[in-house]
Design brief:
This protein has 8 helices and 7 strands, in the order βααβαβαβαβββααα. It is α/β, with parallel strands linked by helices. The protein has a single domain, classed as Aconitase, domain 4 (Alpha-Beta Barrel). Strand 2, helix 3 and strand 3 form a beta-alpha-beta unit. The two termini are 33 Å apart.
Length: 190
């Protein structure tokens, strides 16, 4: 997993509330155990028509979305089933962070385990972000802060362990393996 320290990117906005994991990555694409290629299936039912052609009006199919690494979403993002593929699809597409006023707990945990930063903001900030698609934002993970285009900063909550793992580019297994010598020494003493 790639370390996450800072990020500056424009935003893509999906303002709908209650975007669930089946909308993020439809169940018919859950036949893989790897994340490679899932970005092409991200929001598939919204991005493509019945023949598989891109829907020009969908935000990810518009030229302004190219290269954006921050998704701003409506409340209750990632609700529904516990599929880890949703976080995989967002990451494989190129998103590094998702911002909302509310992110479903299971999705949030899956995102953190896969290097995708879920950022919770208060309603006024969310309203501004939704009203300004394409805004350039800065994220400083060490400071847990989001810098808006006017230079103002907004703090966001993140538990210390998740922050440490993202900063170091570790998942939970990687964290344990980094302490293997200490664990072995403890076991020998016990």
């Amino acid at each position: 997993m790639e370390p996450f320290r800072t990020l500056t990117s424009r935003t893509v906005v999906l303002p709908a509330a209650n975007i669930d994991t089946d909308q993020i990555i439809p169940a018919r694409f859950l036949t893989t155990t790897t994340r490679a290629g899932l970005g092409e299936r991200l929001f598939a039912d919204w991005r493509y028509d019945e023949q598989g052609a891109p829907r020009a009006r969908f935000v990810l199919n518009q030229p302004a979305a190219a290269g954006c690494q921050i998704l701003v979403a409506g409340p209750n993002f990632g609700c529904g089933s516990s599929r880890e593929h949703a976080a995989w699809a967002l990451s494989d597409y190129g998103f590094r962070a998702v911002i909302s006023t509310e992110i479903a707990d299971i999705f949030r945990n899956n995102a953190l385990k896969n290097g995708l930063l879920p950022i919770l903001v208060k309603e006024p900030t969310a309203r501004w972000l939704i009203a300004h698609p394409g805004a350039s934002l800065g994220i400083d993970l060490a400071a847990c802060s989001l810098t808006l285009p006017d230079g103002s900063t907004v703090s966001f909550p993140l538990e210390p362990f998740a922050r440490h793992c993202l900063l170091e580019g570790l998942d939970e297994l990687g964290f344990l393996l980094a302490h293997a010598a200490e664990i072995d020494a403890f076991e020998r003493r016990a």
